[in-house]
Amino acid sequence: FNDAGETCLTFNRVDRGKKYVDHHTLLTIPSPQAGLGHIAFEVQDINHIFLGHEFLKKNGHRHSWGIGRHILGSQVFDYWFDPLGFRVEHWTDGDLLNADTPVGRSSAAEALNVQWGADSSQRAT
Question: Where would one find the signal peptide in this protein (predicted)?
């Protein structure tokens, strides 16, 4: 929700009943322009986040944001740009939820905040 109480983004997950699934498979944000913001790939563990980070950095790819840990979803993340300028996220260690998990509500600031790492204001666009 924003300061006016309007929904500003939603994390959506697949409903598999009692089976645990990823915190979200789709994030929607109201926007005047339709589009896809980024795509995310799960990696094995935090070691692979750092290995990927160093590989991409060494090979001259453009970094966007991270390494850090999201508050909502708890994922360790690292964002990069592909050669066409599209944002790609690598993540690991996210929360698993099921149908018994209550729906939560948070501010936009909390949704974009991090437990550790660079905050979203330092994200390259």
Answer: none
Between CA 10 and CA 26 the distance in angstroms is 8
Residues 50, 68: contact at Cβ < 8 Å?
no
* pLDDT tens, residue by residue, 89-123: 999 999 999 999 988 877 767 777 888 887 777 77
The phi-psi region of residue 93 (left if phi > 0; otherwise alpha if psi is between -120 and 50; otherwise beta) is: left
Two structure tokens written together for 76: 């360790």
For residues 64, 91, 46 and 111, what is the CA-based torsion angle, rounded to 10 degrees? 80
Write the CA distances from 87 to 20, 33, 60, 75, 77, integer angstroms: 27, 17, 15, 17, 12
Domains of the chain by residue range: 10-122
Q: 10-122 in CATH: which number?
A: 3.10.180.10
For 40, half-sphere exposure in the C-beta direction (CA atoms, 13 angstrom radius) is: 17
Give the helix ranges, DSSP H, for the chain. Answer: 46-58, 108-112
